[in-house]
């Protein structure tokens, strides 16, 4: 289980097409608040014929941000680049020159056995080349994990590969929309992705294989306006948490506060977590009622929950 606040701190990951020229002013003005991460996307949001143009805009954006943050005080989120190919990673980092210091890492779409080794080699080479540490966040959304006959073997083989670089795998992400696309599914704002059983079963398998060692982030909620968009998002976030997801991809700034609020820790949970982690291990009993005497706390079965609760409170706060 992760015991460093860093891995919990990605939180609401706001997606932005790399060609967006207004993002610099939005960040400087703190239009999105000061508790989110940012993904600049060169993959699905970009027409295949305009990738080079989008790369150039991304480079300009990041160099401008780097120069601005040296002279202007504003919240600079963790910034990730969602790439298309492994070789694109080193190319972009080299083009960014010193401004690559504001990059946290890369998002790897459609991570699979076909490309895992190349992406892992790419991030290892980057980290050998530069003094700064760069992270990756692979996305599990490839059609190869649909087939039940192969899914378990594929997931465990991918885990073996990622375990070799576990320290720099900041999060594992799931591509809910990509997986739904394979079946032709699309949920309404009144429906949760966790009720689409073929998809939720894939999520459950990913969490079962990776959840003990990695932070896994929840899928995108594609609604940001209209009837029930916010109520539906809050409901899905509750189910995300119950299923083991931490954080969520956001496709609109209006979603950020909902995601952050969902992961705030209750005062009762925080008090219980502190009590469990401060247990006198020399005492006869390792179980007792909690401070309010309304539920059982047991050191041997709740200590992992308690540690996670403490870390979440540091990132998201307490209610």
List keywords for this structure.
10 strands, alpha/beta, TIM Barrel, two-stranded antiparallel sheet, 44% helix
Describe the SSE topology.
Blueprint: E1 12-17, H1 23-28, E2 37-41, H2 51-71, E3 78-82, H3 86-96, E4 103-108, H4 116-129, E5 135-140, H5 148-163, E6 172-174, H6 176-183, H7 197-210, E7 216-217, H8 229-243, E8 248-250, H9 256-262, H10 267-277, E9 287-289, E10 296-298, H11 299-316
Parallel strand pairs: 1-2, 1-8, 2-3, 3-4, 4-5, 5-6, 6-7
Antiparallel strand pairs: 9-10
Helix pairs in contact: 3-4, 5-7, 10-11
Walkthrough of the structure:
There is one protein chain. The protein is 44% helix and 13% strand. The chain has 2 domains: 259 residues, Phosphoenolpyruvate-binding domains (TIM Barrel), CATH 3.20.20; 49 residues, no CATH class. It is of the alpha/beta class and 319 residues long. The chain is globular, with a radius of gyration of 20 Å. Strand 4, helix 4 and strand 5 form a beta-alpha-beta unit. The strands form 2 sheets. Strands 7-6-5-4-3-2-1-8 form an 8-stranded parallel beta sheet. Helix 10 crosses helix 11.
Offer a quick outline of the entry.
The protein has 319 residues and is α/β, with parallel strands linked by helices.
**CATH topology-level fold name of the largest domain:** TIM Barrel
Percent helix:
40-55%
SSE string: EHEHEHEHEHEHHEHEHHEEH
Number of alpha- plus pi-helical segments: 11
- What order do the strands of the largest sheet run in, or round the barrel if closed? 7-6-5-4-3-2-1-8
User: Which ranges are low-confidence, i.e. pLDDT below 50, for 5 or more consecutive residues?
Assistant: none
């Amino acid at each position: 289980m992760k015991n460093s606040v860093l891995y919990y701190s990605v939180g609401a990951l706001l997606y932005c097409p790399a060609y967006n020229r207004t993002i610099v002013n939005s960040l400087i003005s703190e239009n999105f608040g000061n508790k989110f991460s940012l993904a600049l996307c060169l993959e699905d949001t970009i027409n295949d014929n305009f990738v080079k143009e989008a790369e150039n805009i991304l480079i300009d954006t990041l160099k401008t941000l780097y120069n601005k943050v040296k002279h202007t005080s504003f919240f600079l989120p963790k910034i990730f680049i969602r790439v298309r190919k492994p070789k694109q990673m080193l190319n972009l980092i080299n083009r960014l020159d010193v401004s690559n210091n504001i990059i946290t890492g890369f998002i790897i779409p459609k991570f699979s056995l076909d490309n895992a080794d190349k992406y892992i080699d790419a991030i290892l080479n980057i980290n050998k080349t530069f003094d700064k540490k760069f992270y990756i966040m692979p996305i599990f959304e490839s059609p190869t994990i649909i087939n039940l006959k192969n899914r378990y073997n594929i997931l465990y083989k991918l885990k073996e590969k990622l375990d070799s670089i576990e320290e720099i795998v900041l999060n594992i992400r799931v591509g809910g929309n990509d997986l739904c696309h394979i079946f032709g599914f699309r949920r309404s704002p009144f429906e949760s992705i966790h009720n689409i059983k073929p998809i939720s079963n894939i999520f459950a398998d990913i969490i079962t294989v990776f959840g003990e060692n990695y932070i896994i982030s929840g899928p995108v909620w594609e609604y940001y306006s209209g009837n029930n968009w916010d109520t539906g998002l809050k409901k899905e976030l509750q189910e995300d948490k119950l299923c083991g997801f931490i954080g969520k991809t956001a496709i609109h700034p209006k979603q950020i506060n909902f995601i952050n609020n969902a992961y705030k820790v209750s005062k009762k949970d925080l008090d219980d977590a502190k009590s469990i982690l401060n247990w006198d291990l020399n005492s006869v009993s390792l179980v007792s009622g909690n401070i309010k005497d309304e539920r059982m706390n047991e050191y041997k079965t709740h200590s992992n929950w308690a540690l996670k609760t403490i870390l979440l409170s540091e990132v998201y706060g307490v209610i």
